[in-house]
Specification:
This protein has helices spanning 2-13, 26-34, 59-65, and strands at 17-21, 45-49. The protein has 66 residues and is an alpha+beta fold. It has one domain (2-65). The chain has a two-stranded parallel ribbon with strand order 1-2.
């Protein structure tokens, strides 16, 4: 059973994926990040708007997905 859960546990608690988004080209920059070979929706995602110093405590992520 532990062998079956190990990949899921690693994915959920794995290193977060950082997506850098340009406000002028939101879709293009998001598409660029998603197409990277190391991108996975199984890992936590942190959104960073290019040129902004905001810490992603949920606000930039909510704004991006809205």
């Amino acid at each position: 059973m532990a062998q079956l859960l190990q990949p899921l546990t690693t994915a959920v608690h794995g290193e977060e994926v950082v997506v850098v988004v340009s406000r002028r080209r939101v879709l293009k920059s998001a598409e660029f990040s998603v197409k990277k070979p190391d991108f996975s929706f199984d890992r936590p995602v942190r959104i960073v708007f290019a040129g902004e110093d905001a810490v992603d405590e949920g606000g930039p992520k909510r704004e991006f997905f809205r």
